[in-house]
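Reply to dn_fold:

You asked what the input looked like. This is it:
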Amino acid sequence: AAVGGAEDPHEESIKVCCRFRPENQLERDHNGRICVEIPEGGTTVHVPNSDHTFVFDRVFRWDAKQNEVYDYAAKPIINAVLRGFNGTVFAYGQTSSGKTYTMEGPDIEDKVYQGVIPRMVWSIFDGIYHADDHIEFVVKVSIVEIYNERIRDLLDPKKDNLKVHEDKGRGVFIGEVTESYVGCEQEIFDAMRAGHYNRSMAVTNMNEHSSRSHLVFMLTVEQKNLHDRSVKVGKLHLVDLAGSEKVAKTGASGERLDEAKNINRSLSALGNVINALTDKKYTHVPYRDSKLTRVLQESLGGNAKTSLIITCSPSNFNEQETISTLRFGQRAKMIKNVVKVNHERSAEELKLLLEKKDVVLAEVRTRCGALEHLLRCHGIAPPEEAAQGAYAEVVAAETRRREDTTVLYDQLQDCREQLRLKTEQITELYQEKQALYRELDECRMLLKSSEKQKQLVASQMSDAKELREQIEYERNEKADEVVRLSHEVQRLQKENKELHKSRMATGNALAAAAAGAGNGGAAGGGEIAGGASVGSVSAAGGHGGAAGAALLAIAKGSLQSTSASAAGASTRHSSPGSSPGAL
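and this is what came back:
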């Protein structure tokens, strides 16, 4: 178990630093202007519009360099980890305020612009290289992200729902997380690249590379003293939080909107923990409300030296978010942590301590014998045997009491352990319940979407049914029209036949009349042959034949005209859509 070492447990406040970034293009496009006043190298931030003044350990202006921020805010924590303390450095702020830039930097290998995490690597190994020769070091690295309330191992992405556990020896830890042993700076950088590649990122209206998860970089430095075999263990947590978001500004929708909800929910839980730690009215600190606060339990009010870097925008375009972040930092500055060296005494070290106590005890006994001899020399009797017997009984009674107390203490420890296990089970059940609630919400959303699709399909089916009925109605009308036209054609054909018969009869009658008129003219010419000239009579007969022929031609023309009219009427009444064969 970890016990107090060279330094006794003592209270220590969280160190809070504030860093402002320069205005970005979006703020300039909205005619943004600087809305805060920051003295050069000062510790205060004044917001003139709201007349608020905030005090921190250090305030960095927008022209501050990366190494300046690291040397003040993070390097003392790194040095403490090398002495066996736990340490935490985390960045908090709205989205696009510069958290990832501060913690990682644009390029982890750029000596000028690299952030806290890569600079920490050089500091850790620099301390190892300058340590005493009898100190042996073991360094382990783990990288996880908390995405949508699920802890995901970035060094092994297949582990995407890790659990948080706690025991007396290790404190709060993430179970089954990948711990990569490293021997040089480059191996840590390789692990960081792998973690950065697997981290959840997305594009929003405010940030082209918006972090959609909380990144937790965990580094454990175990140092063993080869002389007395004692061990010190320092644990370092470097946390790049996802930024709080206003959906109206980021334009998040769909999956991005669900991510924003979970990010804001976990940051709200972090704020509740800080309020509970700084307000005496609270009797319970809700560490278990989110995975983020559970992982940071030792960093907030526990055994860790903690440095908080709040990142802000200086533009009035984000003035409300900046004031909210400044209030968060000022509240966090009131948290007190109880820090101590994690010193594990070895069997050899305990044996040496026991030998020292035996020497002290032998010295005390020798001195007691000398004092008894001195008393006898001066005629003073030493304590009676009865008194010694009574003392022995008192010692025995005290021994029995201590044994009983030890038994009760062991029982109490067992009860505490059982209670802790039950609490973890309840927590896991609660988390499973929350997960089921989230799945239920998703199912409800899917059901709602299905209902909308069903209504849309029903509407389309109704429209198709109406269109089908309309087409059926028009088809029936066309069929009725075809039947009517068919009857009309039959009637006209019948009339045509009757007209044809009438024409034939009339033609025959006219032909007969014409023939009779010709015969009559010829007979008249013969009878008058005796009294008149032959030429006159022939002429008269010829005129009678010509008159009969003309009458026959007129009759034929009239019949042909009537037949043509009937045929034209039949053609005009036929349906455009029907073929002659159908008619």
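Confidence is low (pLDDT under 50) at residues 1-6, 202-210, 522-548, 569-583.
Hope that clears it up.
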